[in-house]
């Protein structure tokens, strides 16, 4: 996998934000609201679609529980290749915009999400196979990560009302949410949106939007909960971006 230098990723007017979270967290609503409201502020928002949903909608989401380990790794590799290609394409297109215009590339889930759906050993085997690390996939590719907590944790009544449309039980949703938190919480700008700290769902969406504005330096963001894990003297090696898909066989 090539680590070619790409200084264009250092352009300050393109901000890369990963929006993730547990099942039934409200991501779809948040993305639509962010896109609409930021447009009114003159900020262009490009939304990278969720790779897993694209596969599912295309009929390619077969029952992964029937996979052996080799098949499971191949499926995750295909999913990651698609996600990388989508992210890189949207970022390249974002860089074509007016340099005086703020541009947000909003990822509907990120590359580390897959780690919540396989064992630790399988995930490590996948990263070893692709020649990447957590630093490549989490810290260097996103300027911020916003985690919306599943409704199963703090908004149980709403989650119960949506059960017919969900694959996970309440406990399974909470478990996935916790695994996703662990996957991203080492990022230097990891923001947690908890249901218990929101008056209602509308307030939760507002806090997500305020978080995005805060990342952009457009708002003090005094009314939302966030947790930043700051690392002193942290150096980001932009030479790992973008990932060279031609070398992922």
Automatic annotation (TrEMBL):
Stretches assigned to the NadR/Ttd14 AAA domain: 16-188
- Coiled-coil annotation reads none
What this protein is called in its record is NadR/Ttd14 AAA domain-containing protein
Quote the Gene3D superfamilies the UniProt record gives.
P-loop containing nucleotide triphosphate hydrolases
GO MF annotation list: GTP binding; phosphatidic acid binding; phosphatidylinositol binding
InterPro entries annotated for this entry?
Answer: NadR/Ttd14_AAA_dom (IPR038727), P-loop_NTPase (IPR027417), TRPL-trafficking_regulator (IPR053227)
